[in-house]
Every structure is written in structure tokens, then in C-alpha cells.
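Issue 218. Parser rejects a valid record. Input:
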Amino acid sequence: MKTLALLLPLCLAAPALGGDFSLKGYFKTYAYAVEPVNARDVPAPQPNGPYPASENKLRLKTYWSAGSLKAEAAYELVYAARPSELAAARPLTARNDYRVSDPEPFLSPASGGARKPSVLIQNLDRAFLTWSPAAFDLYAGRQPLAFGSGRAVNPTDILAPYPFGTIDTEERRGVDALRLKTPNGEMGEFDAGWLPGRRWVSGTGAGFLRGRGRLGGADLTLLAAAFRGNLMAGADIERHLGGAMLRAEAARVWAGRFGDRNPGEDFDRLTAGAEYVFDLLGGTDAWLEYHYNGAGAAAPSGYAARAARTAYREANVYLLGRHYLAAGAGAQVSALVSAGLAVMANLGDGSFYATPSLDWNAAENLYLGAGALLPSGRRARFNGLTASPASEFGLYDRSFYASLRKYF
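Output the parser choked on:
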């Protein structure tokens, strides 16, 4: 927290130094109706569903710039409410990877908030300075970092990815990093970063080298990263062809390459697909992708053992199977109404996950939305305390939601 303790006052005090300053933010509220998955012979009581839940988020963002210097800070408060039986069965988590330190996340109650039916959570999500002379851009502090071009899954994004089906993905979670970006020719870029990790402890951080350029009419990105004692090498390529955007992204991870080597847990991942805009409803953006997850299991009988492996503990892999097909489309139904649908199918066990959504720009900077998270698949069986998954998305809850977002 020492670095942020220095950077945050600088970000907040920057307006006194002159330059341009702005304060922005938003308020979001989500109301959910959640139907828990019905697992046969469940060993412990489960909440009766559907049950109501809500999440309310206030985010304040400050920006300052003067010449080649910029500062940005963001702080958010989240109030979540849900039935007490649900809170006891499924504790909240406030884990944020690749941060040196954080303020205590649970403000009220300050103790045991993870299992309380209503809780107020804080998150200092941005606090970084940017220096941009002519030759480079240097970023220092808590900032967003994201890699990859895939729509459903990004094999090269191991730092803070969002799982498929996450509803609010507007802001990438901030990580503590020192990052240097320099241009390389007309279309290229060199990018390097260091993430010190939790409390500056060796083995909890990460570092990366990334280069972008043009090759044969395509945009090519090469990436190498060391994270928590592991090594990753990856590539990402995009190319326009016949009006479509073709993409392929791949990565390989060597488990314990800089520590306790564990070659049995090395894995590969690949995402390949295409995106095309059709002249339908004023423009419909459609995409299709195949994803291979070498860290996953070949059959549902192997899903339960995945959590202990390097990919799931340290590389933010969350899919349990190996072969997936994902597709989606977004359309502007009218000037003020947009609709979207995305589906991911596990080709090994036949389960799938659909996420339809509808958004209405009701007034200036005001949006109303609705949607659903619809899993389908064979449900788990229990033998005493041991769960036996029969499909991946059969483990997911079904949810319906309505949202309001106000920006200022």
C-alpha cells in the first residue's frame, strides 16, 4: 500500500498544480432474480429460489492533465443485499489479484462481511500517474491491464480477465504496475510492465514483454510473461479479409518454470474466430469463435480436480472442459435501443450458457437494461460430501436481472 499511499495524494492534489481537472462517475443498480441449480442429494441446505438480490455501485473518477503529465484515480462503493441463507451458503469474495495492498474491503460490517446478507464494500480501483514525453509513455500505479483480441476467451490474458457471462465489464479491475510503452515504426509498439505482487513478496507478482507490428497485412502481437513463478508465451493475430475480421490468439504456460517445475501442469490455450458486420437492423455485429482449453478435463469426471492445478490457482483459467464454441451478436434495434446475445457451448459435455440482453438509452446519460444468464446442462450428483459434476454449465445458477446506469 506504500506506493498507493504516495500516488493517491498526488492524483488528488494534482489540480492544485494547474492544468485541466475533471470529476466524473456513475451510479449503477442491478436487481436479480436467481434460481439456484438443483443438485440431487445435496448434503447441505440450499436457499429456496428464485431469490432476490441487488447490487448498487457508486464510482467516482478524477482526471488531471498538464502537458506531458496525467493522473487518474477512481474509488467505488458497492452495496450488496441478498437473503441470509444465500449469504451463509455462498460468501462474497473481495479478492483483487496483483495488488500490493488494499484498504479493508468490507466497510459495514467491518468483520465477517463476506457472510452477511447486506454489506458495504469499498474498492480503490485506480490511482496512477502517466508521463508522456515524445519518446514513450510511462504509467505508474493502480491501472487497468488487458491482453488479447478474442471476444469470448483471451488465452493471453492471465492478470485480471472477466469470465464469460460477467454482466458488468465496463471497467477492467485495476492492478498495481509500472508500465512502459514506446512506439516502434508507424504501426508498431513495444510494451513492458512489472507487477510487484502482494506486499512486494517475491513470487506473487508478474512481468511482461509485448511487441506489436504488421506482418503480411495482419496485426501481430507477441507476448511473454512471467507470473507467480510460471512462464507464458503467446501470440495474437488479426486480419481483415472480405469484410470480416479474422482473429487467432494462442498461449502456452510452463508451470513452475521459475520455481518448483511441474511439467505435468503445463497447458496450451487457443481462440480462433471471425467477426462480421451485417446490414441488418442498421448494423448487426456478429462473431463466432472456437476455444481450446488445454488445462481442462476431457470429461465431467475430471472437473472436480481442476481447482488444485496451476492454471486455475495462478493463471485465472475458469473453464473446466477442453473444447468450446462461442457465438454472439449485437444489434442497434432503434436509435435508442440495442440488443445482444452471446452463447458458449462446451462441446465435450453438451452444456451451454446463453446471455441475452437489452439496453435502452432512456435519457441523456441514463440507461435501462434487462437480461438473463441461462445455463443448460446435466446437473451434478452428490455422494455424501463429494460432488460429481455431470456437465460444466449444469453447475451454474440461472439469473434474470434489470439494471439502471446513470453517468455524470
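Fixed in the parser; the record now loads. The first strand starts at residue 20 and ends at 35.
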